């Protein structure tokens, strides 16, 4: 297997003496600098007793049985629920003989149901929730529903649009950095023959840093295979349940099927279209960490270090956390639904462990997509606002393409990703090398990179070598990471980390930027970052942060002006 160079890497490679396989741990201990933490998320993380943590099992042994059973198509979610409940009852009456396994039951629905609407309908559940929407419809697994479950089909293949899930058939969480063994633990519950059995989740930006209270439920990484999920297709949908059991993890078949029935008893089939709903609240206060004053000081500190004669540092990505408190609750699914108008060329996601805040986002940046041995990644850097007219937009585009400062920032990202792909794959192709990618509010410099893996087992190497890219950390990687650790006064958590999914023969991860951490009744933290290179202007970079969080703030009204706070005293 290919191994990326350890020197200067975010992850250091060691040999696992138990298995003679490599694992990834962080090479340096956390700094002793005390990190400011946000204290308004009070609840302590408590794992669900009715699901199992797959990281605690034997990662070297796959589960004994993985299968998908497709039931006849029905016209509505209510009928799909009835059919699944009946099938679960029959399944409970005839337990499988294996001591471990995964069984997915799915019912095609003859109408397209918006997955985010279905997830919003499950708001009253105190269960884990997840949502993932790819950038391009039909770019993922193509589903061909079976006719009456007999293997034949009279439906046209339809593209998967988005997925929403509740509950955990099995989850994967730990406070240590995501390792090769953790990846193997996830893989043992997946199968190429069952492509819609997926583990959705995210990984911290920097697992070496201390976990602050608001991120505690996520650990260093968090993945979940949903118990109940709604798969939105082009023109139709699928309602599915997944039961997973492993006696070596003390979750027997009986306990697992009972837990699934308990979850199904809480799921509603009544779905309301949220397309025109907006958060009915206003901002009472808004605070930034760092404040604008300290932001400017930190940017100047980066520039001074870059200008030092013996410094290798050429770029540092500084981030800001903006906390908003609103008059009434911010509902994360309503907020995410409002971002549907922003989703062209963007991924949308929601990840919420039990009794924890929801991490939501609308990110344009792909970390990688793997299909068998084919892998692709992207370089996305440098930002400009969209123009107010066609001619103005073109002028902004030309300015971005010709800017030496932005070219430097972009080239660092593209060439670093290229080098990292060359370490784990063959035949790296960069095409296009530099073009404009336009989003609803902003535009960026963009390049696409593709390669062939030597083995599907190299997937972990891809994740370890690509994250974090210079677009969210800087260059050189370790020097930039240390600067961030020593100078940022808040916990990035999963912000700017990998967020996405694994399945048997395919996986896809975005970079968790343009994101927020939301909990009903307790406000929200919005995150944004910007790359600092030679020639950066602190005031202009601050304006870029405001532009990036505007997709969230535009949906909230500003309350009494005197109440809005713009500094934190950091």
TrEMBL record:
Q: Name one GO biological process term.
A: defense response
Q: What does this protein do?
A: Isochorismate synthase involved in the synthesis of salicylic acid (SA) required for both local and systemic acquired resistance (LAR and SAR) while SA synthesized through the phenylalanine ammonium lyase (PAL) pathway seems to potentiate plant cell death. Also involved in phylloquinone (vitamin K1) synthesis. Has no isochorismate pyruvate lyase (IPL) activity.
Instruction: Note the superkingdom of the native organism.
Output: Eukaryota
- Which species is listed as the source? Carya illinoinensis (Pecan)
Q: Which biological pathway?
A: Siderophore biosynthesis; salicylate biosynthesis
Localization of this protein: Plastid, Chloroplast
What Enzyme Commission number(s) appear in the record? 5.4.4.2
Residues of the signal peptide? none
Tell me what this protein is called.
isochorismate synthase
Q: Return the PANTHER family for the record.
A: ISOCHORISMATE SYNTHASE 2, CHLOROPLASTIC, PTHR47253
Family indicated by similarity: Belongs to the isochorismate synthase family.
Q: Name one GO cellular component term.
A: chloroplast
Catalyzed reaction equations: chorismate = isochorismate
Q: Name one Pfam family in it.
A: Chorismate_bind
């Amino acid at each position: 297997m290919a191994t990326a160079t350890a020197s200067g890497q975010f992850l250091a490679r060691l040999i696992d003496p138990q298995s003679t396989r490599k694992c990834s741990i962080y090479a340096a201990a956390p700094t002793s600098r005390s990190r400011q933490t946000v204290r308004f998320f009070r609840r302590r993380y408590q794992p669900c007793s009715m699901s199992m943590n797959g990281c605690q099992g034997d990662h070297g042994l796959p589960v004994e049985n993985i299968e998908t059973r497709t039931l006849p198509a029905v016209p509505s979610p209510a009928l799909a629920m009835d059919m699944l409940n009946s099938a679960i009852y029959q399944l409970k009456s005839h337990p499988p003989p294996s001591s471990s396994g995964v069984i997915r039951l799915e019912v095609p629905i003859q109408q397209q149901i918006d997955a985010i609407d279905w997830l919003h309908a499950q708001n009253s559940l105190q269960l884990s929730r997840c949502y993932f929407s790819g950038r391009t419809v039909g770019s993922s697994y193509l589903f061909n529903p079976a006719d009456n479950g007999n293997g034949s089909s009279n439906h046209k293949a339809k593209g998967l649009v988005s997925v929403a899930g509740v509950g955990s058939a099995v989850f994967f969480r730990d406070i240590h950095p995501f390792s090769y063994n953790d990846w193997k633990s996830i893989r043992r519950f997946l199968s190429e023959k069952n492509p819609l059995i997926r583990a959705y989740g995210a990984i911290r930006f920097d697992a070496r840093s201390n976990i602050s209270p608001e991120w505690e439920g996520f650990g260093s990484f968090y993945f979940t295979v949903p118990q109940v999920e709604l798969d939105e297709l082009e023109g139709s949908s699928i309602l599915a349940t997944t039961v997973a059991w492993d006696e070596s993890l003390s979750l027997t078949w009986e306990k697992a099927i009972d837990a699934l029935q308990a979850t199904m008893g809480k799921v509603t089939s009544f779905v309301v279209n949220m397309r025109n709903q907006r958060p009915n609240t206003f901002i009472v206060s808004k605070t930034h960490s760092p404040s604008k004053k300290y932001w400017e000081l930190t940017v100047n500190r980066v520039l001074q270090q870059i200008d030092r004669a013996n410094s290798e540092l050429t770029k540092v990505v500084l981030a800001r956390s903006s906390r908003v408190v609103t008059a009434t609750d911010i509902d994360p699914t309503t907020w995410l639904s409002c971002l549907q108008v922003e989703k062209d060329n963007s991924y949308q996601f929601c990840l919420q462990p039990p009794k924890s805040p929801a991490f939501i986002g609308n990110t344009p940046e792909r970390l990688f997509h793997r299909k068998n041995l084919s892998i692709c990644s992207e370089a996305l850097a440098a930002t400009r606002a969209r123009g107010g007219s066609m001619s103005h937009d073109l002028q902004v585009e030309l300015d971005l393409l010709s800017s030496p400062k932005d070219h430097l920032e972009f080239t660092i990202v593209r060439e670093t990703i290229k080098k990292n792909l060359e370490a784990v794959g063959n035949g790296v192709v960069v095409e296009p090398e530099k073009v404009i990618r336009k989003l609803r509010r902003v535009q960026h410099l963009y390049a696409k990179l593709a390669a062939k893996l030597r083995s599907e087992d190299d997937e972990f190497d891809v994740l370890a070598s690509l994250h974090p890219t210079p677009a969210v950390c800087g260059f050189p990687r370790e020097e930039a990471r240390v600067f961030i650790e020593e100078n940022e006064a808040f916990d990035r958590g999963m912000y700017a980390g990998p967020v996405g999914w694994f399945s048997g023969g395919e996986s896809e991860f975005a970079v968790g930027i343009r994101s927020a951490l939301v909990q009903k009744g307790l406000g929200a933290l919005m995150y944004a970052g910007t790359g600092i290179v030679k020639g950066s202007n602190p005031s202009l970079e601050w304006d870029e942060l405001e532009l990036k969080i505007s997709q969230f703030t535009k949906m909230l009204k500003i309350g009494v002006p005197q109440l809005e706070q713009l500094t934190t005293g950091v």
